[in-house]
Amino acid sequence: MTEVAILHEAEVELWEAVAYYEERSPGLGLDFETEIERSLGAVAEHPERWPQRADGTRRYLAHRFPYLVIYAYEDDHVWVLAIAHCKKRPRYWRSRIRNHSSPDGSP
Fold it and tell me: Which CATH number characterizes residue 25's domain?
């Protein structure tokens, strides 16, 4: 299984979404967290399964929730750049592409 590192900004997005769903319906936030964990597991198992885009990223569409796990796969390592809602602020995370050499975004 490939090692997965989640950038700080992506982790913040995850927990904000968990809180949002939990507020809407108790237990739904936990369901979302579980789905994202499952998504990360799928990416870790087969990081090259999803096509590489022109910007070097790959995207995994979560089931049941309108979220993408946006990641880069380099040197046998997965860098999760964003946990992004499919319809909000497209490509807001693009500046993170260059800053993924470590989980906290530092070079």
Answer: 3.30.2310.20
